[in-house]
């Protein structure tokens, strides 16, 4: 018997998530859009997470548990490999899926069936387009690097992936601890993105989160720069050189501010070396590469499509 492919796979990855995982599961099961696959992947928790997961018998749930702890991104990749849905949304073990998120996303996908990724963005930041709006890959890179908008640093909770595109990209890299930023920038090289108002998930902030731990040292700072350098290696456009100099100069200025100006001389030297910078790159401190991109000439004439209107424009 033919089983129709679900539009969505919702995935909850857990590790010692017993305190909040019940809320995460209950919120997914309460979604107003009810036809989806729900994978819960536990990374060998030592608390009562797995016991809580096993209390749920909903037919949409596919529960899997690793025999040993394999790490966050290996766990996410196990989900990517197993997902049967066309699109994938992560709702982690301490998150809450908002009730109408999947319904709204399904409506967006019906209107924009060629969307390869969906990015939730802050509406107040997007004054050049009436959302939802699709941006092609060359526009995405220019928006990421030619503006100050925090587009690619908003993580899994506000990102929907088309599964085939995520698999084609090799899944989620374990090279970086900020792998959500990396995969969004990597996909932006080849994929379009549908910008929609953010607010898919309530994502909880706590001191033991991976993202919080990363922010406690220089890792996030350094990795962000190394990711940008890697992305630029694969980018081929007229503004590439300007973007590379801007990225390098911005990193050096931030490095100076966060180390030397605070008396952390050894930190400056170590990070400078780890970033692969040369002595002559110091001269970038005194130069301003001001490449700026805007997809419109006037903000009172934003990009628009027919989605929000009764008649086609």
TrEMBL record:
The keyword Nuclease does not apply. Residues 9-122 form the Glycosyltransferase 2-like domain. This is Glycosyltransferase family 2 protein. Keywords: Transferase. It comes from Lacibacter luteus. GO terms for molecular function: hexosyltransferase activity. Pfam families: Glycos_transf_2. Transmembrane segments: none annotated. InterPro entries: Glyco_trans_2-like, Nucleotide-diphossugar_trans. It comes from the Bacteria.
